[in-house]
Amino acid sequence: MSPVSWFRKPVIGYFLRTFMALLQGLAGLLIKKNHSIFIAAPQGFRFADNSSFLFRYLYENEVNCFYTVNRKEDYIHLSKTYGYHILYAYSYRAFIQFVKSKCLVYAYADWDFHPFQVSGNKLVINLWHSISIKKLGLAAGLSKIHALKLKKEMQLIDAFVASSKKEADSLYDCFGLSSEKILVSGTPRNDYLLNKQPNDDLVTRNPELAKRTILYCPTFRNNGITNLLPFNDFDLKELDAFLAANDTNLLVRKHHREWYYQKAMGYDELAECTHIFKAGQSEFEEVQELLPHVDILMTDYSGIYFDFLLLDRPMVFAPYDMDQFCVKPGFLFDYEKNTPGAKVYDTAQFKVELSNIFSGIDKYSNERESIRDQFHLYQDGKSSQRILDYIQSHKKFN
C-alpha cells in the first residue's frame, strides 16, 4: 500500500496527520528557517500548471526553491533535470526542507502538500489554476463539511493569485477571501504564452501539430459524463473527412479529472480517425505548452479560453448543456457577454463557423480584445517576477 493510501483512511489518516503536525511543530523549534520557497505539485504529483511554471522561473533565476512530488517515479524523472531541487514527499530531506522553508506555494488545495500540514507561521500562497466562468467553491454550493474545510484552508493563506480585479471580485464569494488576501499579479502559466515561441521539438514528436490545428477542451462535469463533440447530427467519419478536405487536424483533450472519475463518451472512437486525435494528459502533459501551436480553440465552459485570449486567435463555443449548467454549478459571469466566439449547437453550424475562420473571416476580434483586457490586467509575461517580489518583500519571509 502506498503512503498516500494510509493517509486517506479516515481513522488512521487522522492520527497520522495529527502526528505529522506535532512532529513539524517540534522540529520547527529546533531547526532554523531559511529563505527558501517550497512548492507543492498539483494533486501531489503533477509537474504542471502554475506550480511548475513558477518553479521553473525560480530555478532558472537561481532562487532557493524546491518542488515536491509524492510519487517516486516522478521524483526520479524530475531529478534528472532539476537535481536536488526536487523532493520526494515521503523522505527525511523533504520533511526537513518543509520545516526550514519560510514560504509555501501551491495551486489546487492544501492536500498538494501531503503528507505535510500547512501552518499559519509560514508565508502561504495559492497560485490557483485559472480564471473560471463557472461558480467554484462556496459559490457552487459546497456541503457544510467541505465549506468548513475550505474556509479553514483559506484562513491559513496569505495570498491568493488572480489575473485582474474582475476575477478578484469573483473570488471573494468562491473562497470566502478578504480583499487584502488577493494578489493581482497574473499567473505563471500565462507567462509561458506571452514569452515563449512554439516548441519545434513538440511538433517533431507530434506531427499532427504541423497542420492547422483545432483544440477542443470540454470542462469537467460533476454529475454526468462529458459528451465529446456533443451534436445530435454528429457523424465522426463525416467530420474527419471535412477536416481532411481542409488540411486541418482536431485535437480532443479530456479534462484531467475525467481520468479519475468517469469515462468521456466518444473518446475511444477517435482512434479510427485520420484528422482527429486524442490530446489528453498522456499525450500532452502540460496544455500550456500545446496552446501556442493551436490555431482555433473550441470549448464549452472551460476556463482555458481565458488563457487563449492572450494569443488573440479565434474560438468556438459548444454550450450543449447550458440549461443544466445555469442551475449547477452556475456562472460567475454572464456567459453570452464573456465568450467571444460563435456558439454552435450542431455539426452543420460547427462546419460553417470553421469554414468562415478558414477563409479569414474573424467576427469576434474586437470582443476578444475587450474581454482579454477585462480579465488580464498584466500582459507583459512578468507574473512570476511579481509573485517573487511579493514573497521577498513580505514580513513573514524576512
Secondary structure topology:
Blueprint: H1 3-8, H2 10-30, E1 34-40, H3 49-60, E2 65-69, H4 72-82, E3 86-88, H5 92-100, E4 101-106, E5 123-126, H6 144-156, E6 159-162, H7 165-175, E7 182-184, H8 188-195, H9 200-205, E8 212-217, H10 236-245, E9 248-252, H11 258-261, E10 276-278, H12 287-290, E11 296-299, H13 304-308, E12 315-317, H14 322-327, E13 342-343, H15 347-358, H16 365-375, H17 383-393
Helix pairs in contact: 3-8
Task: Please give a quick description of this structure.
Helices cover 40% and strands 14% of the residues. With 398 residues, it is an alpha/beta fold.
Describe the structure.
The chain is α/β, with parallel strands linked by helices and 398 residues long. It folds into 2 domains: 3-186 and 381-397, CDP-glycerol glycerophosphotransferase, N-terminal domain (Rossmann fold, 3-Layer(aba) Sandwich), CATH 3.40.50.11820; 197-375, CDP-glycerol glycerophosphotransferase, C-terminal domain (Rossmann fold). Helix content is 40%, strand content 14%. The chain contains 17 helices and 13 strands. The strands form 2 sheets. The chain has a 7-stranded parallel beta sheet with strand order 3-2-1-4-5-6-7, sandwiched between helices. Strands 10-9-8-11-12-13 form a 6-stranded parallel beta sheet. β9 (248-252), α11 and β10 (276-278) form a beta-alpha-beta unit. α3 (49-60) packs across α8. The radius of gyration is 22 Å and the shape is globular. The two termini are 41 Å apart. Residues 258-264 have low confidence and may be disordered.
Descriptors:
about 400 residues; alpha/beta; Rossmann fold; 6-stranded parallel sheet; about 40% helix
